Structures are given as structure tokens and as C-alpha cells.
Amino acid sequence: MSIHPETSAITAGRPEAGPDAPLNPPIISSSTYHAGGPVGYGRYGNETWTALETAIGELEGGATLSFSSGMAAISAVFSILPIGAPIVASNQGYSGVMTLLNQFHASGRLEVRLVEITHTEEVIAAMKGAALVWLESPTNPCLDVADLPTIIAAAKKLGIGVGVDNTFATPLVQKPLSMGADIVMHSVTKFLAGHSDVVLGSLSTNDEALYKRLDESRRFNGSIPGSFEAWLGVRGIRTFPIRFRAAERNAQELVTRLSRHPKVTKVRYPGFGAIISFEVDGTAEDAQKVCESSKLITHATSLGGIESLWERRRRWALESPSVPEQLIRLSVGCEHVDDLWEDIHQALTGL
Ligand SMILES: Cc1ncc(COP(=O)(O)O)c(C=O)c1O
Question: 62, 149, 181, 314: least CB-packed within 10 angstroms?
């Protein structure tokens, strides 16, 4: 029976049922196991990770490996590519990933080809001879959306691997593996875990050989999650669909209200999800002041939690100069939309 994600988020990764069996997975705190089993050592496997991996795997439709962070998951993908391999990626996206790509390119470890992700023809033209196309869609923080079905189909025709960072859209909006992507990645830190209390990552794939190579990368780079963190991830996933939909409803209402506000010059929103990027009518200092004057929305980085957060992305030295100085990224949470609006309105009015 194929079940809906709202259901599998609640049911997947539970221990086997039986008299007095626990409903929730145990937190396995052990660096080693009695000899003779298939796991053997704490860096190779853990029952609590398995629960998290089963839950994400059912949502994305692929075998899943959990990692100590989203960056660790992405690093595992890049690390299995041959030295000097060409890789096509968006010219803007999460600053941590852009930094990693720049470092890999500068050292000659990879040949990184940066493209305008919304220009499908440009993306396809850059694929010639590439080993991998890495697609963050929507992008962080400009919320550009790639034409995933077309790009993935073109890459498949050429026999090129495709990885998708699905952190912003989540499997409730798009399931890249079902479109033919080889790998789907999450910063589980964000919507899946959803409580701003843990840093985690994941990779899912339907390719057995690829799974094995990524598993080996995790084993020998040691980029494993802690068992408590994995448990928090599972716990968060139980409410992920209802949190995501509630936050998305709030975001859609806020987009309407922000678009009409005289102190807002531009609102970016891909039409789904709970992240809004908007530009204030003023300077970087004005945008900074808006973020610092909120009373309900927390002035902090990160996103995807039950509580609303916002920040001016260019406050980070690593953020791309192509991101406007006065752009504020708002991660909408599940508070009452009128309370959020009152806070946004008072912060903007203070300008
Ligand atoms: C789109 C995207 N991918 C990857 C990452 C990295 O994830 P983590 O912070 O869990 O390492 C982030 C973090 O903000 C992100 O926004």
C-alpha cells in the first residue's frame, strides 16, 4: 500500500510492534557492539540512525544515510567524485556550499562550472563532460527555482549524475528521485527536524552502488550523526508535514501583506514553502535595523523551525555580493499570522 507523506512521517522508523515494545526508537549510546553482527562498530551503524534514515527514506523514496550535518552530507557527495571532475552548480546558493565549491575549484579537486540555474539551456549546455549536476532549488536566499524535470531528463540522456538539495522545497513539494535524480540531500537541521535544536544531514538514493560508496565515505570520513541528534531528527519528522503546511499558509498570507507594504520594494517567494526573501526600501543599515527591532521574530540565522527567524543575509562576510544588501530572509514559523504581521509591520514602520 502506498501511503501519504503525512502518514509515513508518523509511522516510519518505529520499532517492531510487540507486547511492551516501545513506540519510539531507543537512543543507542554505544561505540561498539558484541562481535558477530553485521554492524560491529559505532561508526558503521546505529539503530537510532536507522530509524531516522527509514523515516527520511520513506518521504523521499530512496535508501537514506544520515550525516552529522547538511554540509557533511554534501561533502560526502563531492568527495566521491574523481580528482578534477567537472561539476555544474548554481552560481548562487547557500553560502556554505558556495564556499566549499570555490575551495574545491581553487585546489583543482573539482572543476566547478557555475551557471544561472533559472536558465535551463545554459545549465544543459554546461553539462558536456560533467560528472555531476548539483541543484539547490529553490536557492538560498534568492529563492530561484530550477526546472528540475527538464534538467534531470537532459542529464540522464547524457549519463550525468544529478544531486538535488531539497532542503527548501522538502518532499511535500518535490521528490527529485522520482524525477530521475540520483541523490537527494537535506539539511535535516531545517524543516525535517524543525525545532532549531539539532544539526543533521541526509542523502537518499535508489542506486545501490552509489549508496555503498556514500556509506563508505561516511564510515571513513567519520561524518556520522550522534544518536541523540538522530533521535531528535525522528521526533521532529513526526510533525514535519503539519508544521510545513501551517508555516506555508502563514508565508502565503505574509507574502500578500508584504507585497503591499510601502517600505518593501521586492518580495521573493517561489509559490510554495515557508521562506520569504524581501528587500526593504532603504540601505543595508535600514534592513539591519528592521531585523534588530523585532519583538516576536527571532533575529538569527537558519530556517525551517517552528519559530519564525529572520536576518539580513549580507551581514555574513561569506554571503555572495549578488545578494542585495537590503535583502531580509524570513523563515516563517507556525505562530499566528496576525502576530507575525504585527511584528513585521512595527519593525518596518520604525524605519
Ligand atoms: C540549502 C542549504 N543546504 C545546505 C545547508 C547546510 O546544512 P547544515 O547547516 O545542516 O550543515 C544549508 C544550511 O543553511 C542550506 O540552507
Answer: 149
Judged by phi (left if over 0) then psi (alpha if -120 to 50, else beta), residue 208 lies in alpha
State pTM to two decimals: 0.98
- Which atom of ligand 1 lies closest to the CA of 190? 10
Cα 19 to middle of ligand 1, angstroms: 40
Report the separation in Å between the CA atom of 74 and the middle of ligand 1, taken as the mean of its atom positions.
9
Spell 169-195 as b/e; 16+ CB within 10 A means b: bbbbebbbbebebbbbbbbbbbbbbbe
Per-residue model confidence as pLDDT tens for the chain (351 residues): 689 999 999 999 999 999 999 999 999 999 999 999 999 999 999 999 999 999 999 999 999 999 999 999 999 999 999 999 999 999 999 999 999 999 999 999 999 999 999 999 999 999 999 999 999 999 999 999 999 999 999 999 999 999 999 999 999 999 999 999 999 999 999 999 999 999 999 999 999 999 999 999 999 999 999 999 999 999 999 999 999 999 999 999 999 999 999 999 999 999 999 999 999 999 999 999 999 999 999 999 999 999 999 999 999 999 999 999 999 999 999 999 999 999 999 999 988
Residues framing ligand 1 (Cβ under 6 A): 69-71, 94, 96-97, 136, 140, 165, 167-168, 187, 189, 199, 201
Q: CB of 264 within 8 A of CB of 348?
A: yes
* 12 C-alpha to ligand 1 centroid (Å): 24
Residue ID of nearest Cα to ligand 1 atom 9: 70
For ligand 1, atom 15, which residue shows the shortest CA distance? 94
Q: How far apart are CA 233 and CA 295, in angstroms?
A: 28
Atom in ligand 1 nearest the alpha carbon of residue 74: 4
Sign of the dihedral defined by the CA atoms of residues 46, 52, 53, 58, in that order = positive
